[in-house]
Amino acid sequence: MLHQQLSRLALEYASERTKAFAGSEFGSFVRHDIGLTAKKQLVFLPYDLKVKASVGAGNWASVPWLGFFDPLITESATKGFYVVYLINAQTREIFLSLNQGTTAAYQSFGENRGREHLKRTALEISEKVPKFARYFDTSPIDLSSQDSLPSGYMAGHAFGRRYDALSIDEKQFYSDFEKMLAAYEALIDAGGTTPAEVMMEEAGTSDIEESRTYTLFRRIERSPNVRVPVLQKRGAVCEGCGLNPARDYDYQGPLKHTPLDVHHSKPIAGMAEGETRRYKIPDDFLVLCPTCHRVIHKQANPADLERLRRTVKFKH
């Protein structure tokens, strides 16, 4: 089980990292076995997440980890925010953490300012999902390392739980796991780490709930896991005015760069509780030109394609 494998990782990592990295059976156990067990843990949960376990790239990492990533936000630990188990092999502790991409922060601000930025954003995360922050521990975590990446992990930690690898409460462990994934999705639904004023400006509204919904819709629509499959299945022609980039603009580039928008048309508030995805491809989407996309968002019902078509006074 996952808690047992993470316990083994915490107990044996200090010894294993004194051995050769290349061809390490222990490294394979972490990357493959722990990763596979983690994926199985998600099977009956309503989340579509990427999973990765790491002990380093080319050399042993100071802090090994197991991460869970929502593709709407990130698919790697270098950017965005994600759920992660961080291992302190010196103290034999496991930390469940809602954390942030250290590498991106360092690239944007430099290491010192980047860590300060991560700390500020960690506080903002806790404020955005307060009921989850209250359930978990918001105290700083100690990874017993001053190396660059671990220092970033410690700065980017918003809240989580500490476990002693020698005495993990199994019931608590899995309850925390499910609660943390719920916190992760709640944070995404709340607009993630995007400041409220930025969301409202982009959405063109002063209503915070409307702006959060708009931000989530745009994340879904821009996701590479959504855009290309929708265009493939619904066709690269505006379903409002009929604009066809290949015909009307002589567009001959790749499908992903087609000058059309993918519009998420299903109200998220209307999704059934426990539904496994925020969307279904292609049923929950429309393909629209940028103008029709802007207009349909002005309608009372942003899913009413027939009303949009009646509004259009021209056809391509």
Return the CATH class of the largest domain. Alpha Beta
What profile does the largest beta sheet have? 5 strands, antiparallel
Give the strand order, joined by hyphens, for the main sheet: 1-2-3-4-5
Secondary structure category: alpha+beta
Query: In terms of per-residue confidence, which ranges show pLDDT below 50 for 5 or more consecutive residues?
Result: 269-276
Strand content: 5-15%
Which of globular, elongated, flat, extended, rod-shaped describes the shape? elongated
- Average pLDDT taken over every residue: 91
Would you list the SSEs in sequence order as H and E? HHEEEEHHHHEHHHHHEEHH
Distance between the termini: 58 Å
Radius of gyration equals: 22 Å
Q: Output the number of helix runs.
A: 13
- Total number of domains: 2
Provide the CATH architecture of the largest domain: 2-Layer Sandwich
Q: Please estimate the helix content.
A: 40-55%
Strand element count? 7
Q: The CATH topology of the largest domain is what?
A: Metal Transport, Frataxin, Chain A
What key phrases describe this protein's structure?
alpha+beta; Metal Transport, Frataxin, Chain A; 2 domains; five-stranded antiparallel beta sheet; 13 helices; 7 strands; 13% strand
Brief write-up:
Helices cover 46% and strands 13% of the residues.
